[in-house]
Design a protein that fits this description.
8 helices; alpha/beta; Rossmann fold; 16 strands; 5-stranded parallel β-sheet; 7-stranded mixed β-sheet
């Protein structure tokens, strides 16, 4: 691997960053993140990056604001250290859910964070499965938007009988994403006619599509509190589904998610490691796939000037 390439990791997902480095045959760069006595963050790059092509891995997970600040300060430190190009590798970009003004006097925070990354020193961004595709357009620097759909689809193809399986979207808004997933597997799809009554009240409606006596896989971009997934499982059971599996790219698993997933009538749950899952959140039914090889391949292609899109052809 070219000696000009460097990979660093902030604190949110160092395990994934180390796996990316192993795929590339590199060591993780030396980076110190500490705190002053007044609680201010202190970041220091502990090796020479002058005229190097640098990638910094950081997911926007809990505590989100702290992890964003770590990344911003690291980007600024790398720019000050004369790195030739700095790429922010953000496997999970949580503020992609803040993509529109759907209430009075609110911030479109997905765009704000994109502006902050550029101001801090990001020359480009590498991310995965944004909640809303239009967030890609919030950035004024180049963005490579990867997807873990082929990785998760291949797991289901390898481990399950697809002859009686149907893919289900939790609402009509997710139908496009689930359509790509079902097409990859060559199976039919359905969706739940979910209606939002208010900001806090969601009415779970009818299943659009045939699921009775079928094996079902519910697919979504992320699982946060698991409330939507739990309601979807109950709706599918009432509609006569034979067995229910779930797949998601980002396993955020916050609040009551673990309790809900333990009680859910799920045969299996498949996620990726874009979000680091601590031991206390690992369930027997949970399978975690790594996206390190995909991110490593994208980093190598960005570094050498090859097409990233060719990874999915």
């Amino acid at each position: 691997m070219n000696d000009e390439l460097r990979i660093f990791a902030c604190n949110s997902n160092r395990r994934l960053a180390a796996d990316i480095c192993r795929c590339l045959g590199l060591r993780l760069g030396a980076l110190e993140i500490a705190r002053f006595s007044n609680d201010n963050l202190h970041v220091q790059i502990r090796e020479n990056v002058r005229e190097r092509d640098v990638f910094v891995v950081q997911s926007f997970t809990h505590p989100v604001s702290e992890h964003i600040m770590e990344l911003l300060i690291t980007l600024d430190a790398l720019r000050s250290a004369s790195a030739r190009r700095v790429t922010a590798v953000i496997p999970y970009y949580s503020y992609s859910r803040s993509d529109k003004k759907d209430a009075p006097r609110i911030s479109i925070t997905g765009r704000l964070v994109a502006d902050m990354l550029r101001t801090a020193g990001a020359d480009r961004v590498l991310t995965m499965d944004l909640h809303a595709d239009q967030v890609h357009g919030f950035f004024s620097v180049p963005v490579d938007h990867l997807t873990a759909i082929p990785t998760i689809a291949e797991h289901f193809r390898t481990h399950y009988d697809l002859s009686n399986m149907v893919a289900v979207a939790t609402d009509a808004g997710g139908a496009k994403r689930v359509g790509r997933f079902s097409e990859r597997l060559g199976i039919p799809m359905a969706f739940i006619d979910k209606r939002r009554v208010s900001d806090t009240d969601v009415k779970q409606g009818e299943v659009v599509g045939r699921v009775r006596d079928r094996d079902v896989v519910v697919f979504d971009d992320e699982i946060s509190t698991a409330g939507t997934l739990l309601a979807t499982v109950e709706t599918l059971k009432a509609a006569g589904a034979r067995s229910i599996h779930a797949g998601a790219v980002h396993a955020v698993l916050c609040g009551p998610a673990i309790e809900r997933l333990r009680s859910a009538d799920l045969a299996s749950l498949v996620v990726t490691d874009t979000v680091d899952i601590p031991p206390e959140k690992r369930l027997d039914k949970l399978a975690t796939l790594t996206v390190a090889p995909l991110l490593a391949a994208a980093i190598e292609r960005i570094h050498t000037g090859e097409s990233v899109g060719a990874l999915f052809e």
